[in-house]
Design a protein that fits this description.
With 617 residues, the chain is an alpha/beta fold. It has three domains: 205 residues, Thiamin diphosphate (ThDP)-binding fold, Pyr/PP domains (Rossmann fold); 161 residues, Rossmann fold; 185 residues, Rossmann fold (3-Layer(aba) Sandwich), CATH 3.40.50.970. It contains 24 helices and 23 strands. The strands form five sheets. A six-stranded parallel β-sheet has the order 5-4-6-7-9-8, sandwiched between helices. The chain has a six-stranded parallel β-sheet with strand order 14-13-12-15-16-17, with helices on both faces. It has a six-stranded parallel β-sheet with strand order 19-18-20-21-23-22, with helices on both faces. Strand 22, helix 23 and strand 23 form a beta-alpha-beta unit. The mean pLDDT is 96.
């Protein structure tokens, strides 16, 4: 067998560049590139190897390690998990900055390859700069904090470790069921060590995403259960989009007359004007979706984790006779809360279930009720998104202005604060994948970096990033990266003077205004942040608007602008859409000296009692 002498870092880079995927008949590199911030743990070994790779495996520079991992994660999500990116950092703070981003990918089941530098395998210079020392375990480094948020973790302390570690990593990154972040902690001296690798190890490999069909007996049980349903609903998760099953689901729901409702991850799978699309479900759900969910006797959950926001903390499904069928590629998600598991790829599973159902249709009275509920909700929602006369617009009115100027090809990106709730309820999605919300981990600071990753995946679509001032101040550095890379974003920055969403939650649980809005925080002088000047300093075009009409005009100008634009608008911190929605289990203190907390606790206990009386959860 022919051998090739390479450093371990060179072997890593050559192997990654040899991985391919076929999309719509076109063979493409599986890895679209590597994000890198170099330091003493990766600049000499991995840095030299990436430089030699050139455009074969392009390297991108960001300004923050967490942000570049967010960009990589967003890219993978926008590519429906078919393509992905790698991220390399130095040891120490560069590596630990990856933890939050790894958790985002972990929760959202997205592929992300992390290659942080690690301590010296030979231990000769111990402790090296930035090394975290465990007094009782000499094998631990700072990178071990990535173990709980990695689907696969390995430490590369010998060059030959790559021969087993890399195929295992590829298996996880391309497995629909086990997909998630992989961490290869790469000892910095090992990166530069040479080894004779077998040439076949670097042979090009074409990956194909598996489509697991359902097992026959489980399929028969699921079909029989659904065929008896008088009030069925479909809950659409992100797995529908990852599986490219949106057209199949749209047809299934239409022909069967089954109302469908969207999680944050599943939104945009159905067009807004689909007759059976009830919109968002759960805590941030529409009145239409939650009304149908409360009455449903059968919940067909497709590609969803059934998290607390989707299920109203498991209180929204109130029918005492309700059953759940969980169609999911991951067994862990398919057995939650006594569901009948239908373990399969969403597209393959829907096709098989459709074939097994024969002529079944939901009762006409149920289908008609859903259509009436939807129409009533659309009229209600319009009253919140229409322009008003108040001094400060609400987030909903900002969304209304953007929707009036939107195009079907637009992509909206957001992540945390009050905007995700308003967008889940009110946003009318255009084309599939036009709604990109990181709400599995609800990560403040994801928005701009994520928008950059989405734009890299969709260079010909306009990408709108919706962000509050709190998230903007947490992480805004990738505005400069977007300008540097000529990946234009249109950023709408709603300034409500702090963490308005949590301020409202604080009030709802009886808390006094405290430490959320800037005005309610400990301060000597309130900061007067000039967001326009700040964005301009990072290279963006920036403007502040005072009215919704000015906002609409600014959106038109931003579309024509040659680079990233930031549009700043002051918004109302207190106002949100009080129609729709559902209870969310946020524990209220049992003991307090404040009457407002005591009253909130009494209400909370009543909700707990209501949930306890529901079917087994």
């Amino acid at each position: 067998m022919k051998m090739i002498r390479l450093t371990a870092a060179q072997a890593l880079v050559r192997y990654l560049a040899a991985q391919f995927i076929e999309i719509d008949g076109e063979k493409l590199p599986l890895f679209a590139g590597v994000w890198a911030i170099f330091g003493h743990g990766n600049v000499a070994g991995i840095g030299e190897a990436l430089h030699a790779a050139g455009d074969t495996l392009p390297t991108f520079r960001a300004h923050n390690e967490q942000a570049m991992a967010h960009s990589a994660t967003a890219y993978a999500k926008a590519m429906r998990r078919q393509r992905m990116m790698a991220v390399t950092t130095s040891i120490g703070p560069g590596a630990t900055n990856l933890v939050t981003a790894a958790a985002v990918a972990h929760v959202n089941r997205l592929p992300l390859l992390l290659i942080p530098g690690d301590v010296f395998a030979n231990r000769a210079p111990d402790p090296v700069l930035q090394q975290v020392e465990d007094f009782g375990d000499g094998t631990i480094s700072a990178n071990d904090c990535l173990r709980p948020v990695s689907r696969y973790f390995d430490r590369i302390s010998r060059p030959e470790h790559l021969l087993t570690a890399l195929p295992r990593a590829m298996n996880v990154l391309t497995d629909p069921a086990n997909c998630g972040p992989v961490t290869l902690a790469f000892c910095q001296d090992t990166q530069s060590e040479a080894y004779d690798y077998p040439e076949p190890f670097f042979a090009p490999r074409l990956h194909r995403i598996m489509r697991m069909p359902p097992e026959a007996e489980s399929l028969a049980q699921a079909a029989a259960l659904l065929a008896k349903a008088k009030k069925p609903i479909i809950v659409i998760g992100g797995g529908v989009l990852y599986s490219q099953a949106e057209a199949q689901l749209a047809d299934f729901a239409q022909r069967r007359g089954i109302p469908a409702m969207e999680t944050q991850a599943g939104k945009s799978a159905l067009p807004t004007d689909h007759s059976m699309n009830m919109g968002a479900v759960g805590v941030t759900g529409t009145g239409a979706a939650n009304t149908m969910a409360e009455a449903a006797d059968l919940v067909l959950a497709v590609g969803t984790r059934l998290a607390d926001f989707t299920t109203g903390s498991w209180a929204v499904f109130k029918n005492p006779d309700r059953n759940i069928i969980a169609l999911n590629v991951q067994a862990y998600d398919s057995i939650k809360h006594g569901a009948l598991p239908l373990i399969a790829d969403a597209k393959a599973g829907l096709a098989a279930l459709d074939a097994a159902l024969g002529t079944y249709q939901a009762p006409q009275t149920w289908t008609s009720s859903a259509k009436a509920q939807k129409q009533a909700w659309l009229e209600c929602a319009a009253s919140y998104t229409n322009a008003g006369n108040q001094a400060l617009p609400s987030d909903a009115q900002v969304l209304g202005a953007l929707m009036r100027k939107s195009r079907p090809s637009d992509i909206v990106v957001s992540a945390a604060g009050g905007l995700p709730g308003e967008m889940h309820k009110l946003w009318q999605a255009g084309a599939p994948m036009g709604y990109h919300m990181e709400y599995g981990y609800s990560t403040m600071g994801y928005e701009i970096a994520g928008g950059l990753g989405v734009k890299m995946a969709n260079p010909h679509r306009d990408v709108f990033v919706l962000i509050g001032d709190g998230s903007y101040l947490m992480m805004n550095s990738e505005i400069a990266t977007s300008v540097m890379m000529d990946r234009k974003l249109i950023i709408l920055l709603n300034d409500n003077g702090g963490f308005g969403c949590i301020n409202r939650l604080q009030a709802a649980t009886g808390g006094a205004p405290f430490n959320n809005l800037l005005v309610d925080s400990r301060h000597e002088v309130l900061p007067a942040v000039d967001f326009v000047a700040h964005a301009r300093s990072l290279g963006a075009i920036a403007v502040k608007v005072d009215t919704l009409a000015e906002l609409e005009a600014a959106i038109d100008e931003a579309r024509k602008a040659p680079r990233t634009s930031v549009i700043v608008m002051d918004t109302d911190a207190a106002k949100s859409t009080d129609a729709g929605g559902f209870w969310w289990d946020v524990a209220v203190p049992e003991v307090s000296t404040r009457d407002a907390v005591k009253a909130a606790r009494k209400d909370y206990e009543a909700k707990l009692a209501e949930r306890a009386a529901l079917p087994s959860t």
